[in-house]
């Protein structure tokens, strides 16, 4: 059996494989963490065919993307500020206002048209919080959905010091 070397992800602190690999250029995640996120997305796409209601799948997928992107905000750059802002706006509309995935996507598109008003928000600390590792361990779609919802809710709450600003951006 081959033992992997593990490192703490620079973004979330989870123990992940110490690999050289592709990462997202402006999110602050280690290659091992980014690889697990890719596996989660693949699992969601493959699970979509087993879920009767396509909207149900899309709702989970929307939360997965938003939770991941706000958990790994990167460093203060224009692009990272915009990314975090639109994903936090999406979490606000989905979790606080009850929007479905399609409506949240329309809101994100509208928000992007005002992206010049977004600025860097100091991120909270995410160490020892729910991570992609937890979500990757789901045994079926419904367990996956529950974990993603918990993850998204925890990420939204972690950014609570900025909720008023996010609500202002959401009203643009």
Distance between the termini: 55 Å
- As residue ranges, the low-confidence spans are none
Number of domains: 1
Count of separate DSSP helical elements: 7
Q: Which structural class is indicated by helix and strand composition? A: mainly alpha
β-strand percent reads under 5%
Can you give the helix content as a percent range? 55-70%
Order of helices and strands: EEHHHHHHH
The averaged pLDDT comes out at: 86
Order of neighbouring strands in the sheet with most strands? 1-2
Instruction: Kindly provide the radius of gyration, computed on alpha-carbon positions and rounded to a whole number of angstroms.
Output: 16 Å
Tell me the number of strands. 2
Global geometry: globular
Q: What can be said about the biggest beta sheet?
A: 2 strands, antiparallel
Task: Please tell me about this protein's structure.
By secondary structure, this protein is mainly alpha-helical. The chain has one domain (33-170). The chain has helices at 31-48, 54-71, 78-96, 101-112, 132-136, 141-158, 163-170, and strands at 6-8, 15-17. It has a two-stranded antiparallel ribbon. Strand 1 and strand 2 form a beta hairpin. The longest helix is centred in the middle third of the chain and has 19 residues, at 78-96. It starts with 5 loop residues before the first strand and ends with a helix.
